[in-house]
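Milestone M4 deliverable, item 7.
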Amino acid sequence: MRSEISIRRDYASPRIATGVLRAVSPDNKDAPCDTKIEMRTEGCTLLVRIVSDAGLPSFLRTVDDLLLCLQAAERAADGAL
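Output delivered:
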């Protein structure tokens, strides 16, 4: 069964969106082999798409992990401003 989610995060500037993308991207290398994570920025917006054939529990763990990483990167960006 295929699971898919799209996440959109808007930031105050393109620099913050790019910084969050760079901070989180290395974590994506540890995603399960049957899970694809695509991330990109469009101006002030970070767009994330996760597609997985790994089963729902694995998919939900991946999404949860990514959201926690995004939260940490966003807090770091807030502290750097």
